[in-house]
Amino acid sequence: MDSSLSKIFNRLDSSFYPCEFSYADLIGMLSEREFSHLRKDDILRQNGYQTSVRCDACLDGHLAEVVIISTDEGYFICNRSMEPKTPINPLLYSQWQWNLPVFMKKIGKGLQLSVDPKPLSESDFWYLGIKTFNRMSVLVFYLRRIVETAKYQDFMIAQQTGSSVKNILILKSGDSSVPWLNIQPPPLFLSLEDLLKFEKSGIVFNLKQIKDVVTTGFRNIFFDERNGDVVLKSSTLGNITPSSPEYFFLSALWRSFDIPLTHQQIVTYMDEGLGEARDKNKKDDSQYCATIKSKIVSKLGEDVDKFLTATRTSGGLPAYRMFNPR
Ligand SMILES: [Zn+2]
What we know:
3 domains, Arc Repressor Mutant, subunit A, single chain, about 30% helix, four-stranded antiparallel sheet, 10 helices
């Protein structure tokens, strides 16, 4: 999608704060109406005028000083021609800043969050509040620019420890990829361009989109790769010893959630994880997987069936799949 908002969001993603645009920049991305909406909402705030312009009154092509008298009167000065003052339309030379605090408030309001958004890391990372969808509560953040993982991971962990809510949704500006975060359950990311769009009345929110992302994205089964805990709907079923064959069996399926993995794929993943400790005498991948799976059942109980099933790939190969329990 290449909407006017997505063009701006991609710019927010890459530019350093404050996010400034020239009028020509903005008009290259937005329609007049969109520009006036953002201006009216104070999301785009004028922060001055450019101070010089390439002279087109003479043939020298020098930089000429811009003088602004009022919002509708100004000129530039060419000392090399008989008529030094050339009138200009000040708007065309105006400069604008993306007003992040106002924009954050707009998002908080659009998502019906109760608290005011607050910046956590200068102007890159904001905490927006808690949102509940279908009885599932989510901490909502906004990451303007992809910074180093460690820089925002700390904030999120601090946020998590202060709250019983573990699900994290991060709104991000552009379409750049995000670093993998060692946070469980893994945060979900949603691009602003999937959440916001322009209509005649101005910016509107696609709340169904965010609800879909949250309700399908967060899982009722949770395999904690840090310590091997398996948690079903917030009650711990048991523990799988990290670096055991059973651990890598679950890890393979957890990382390919909802996707059938063939027995061979699972065994390959396990062998890589186990390294020298891999079972070098195993003959048959399917038999080996069945053995490992039954060891998992004996540790965690029959509830394993609620999130792990034997199935087939679309190509008909025997496989296992981990899925979201109801
Ligand atoms: Zn000139």
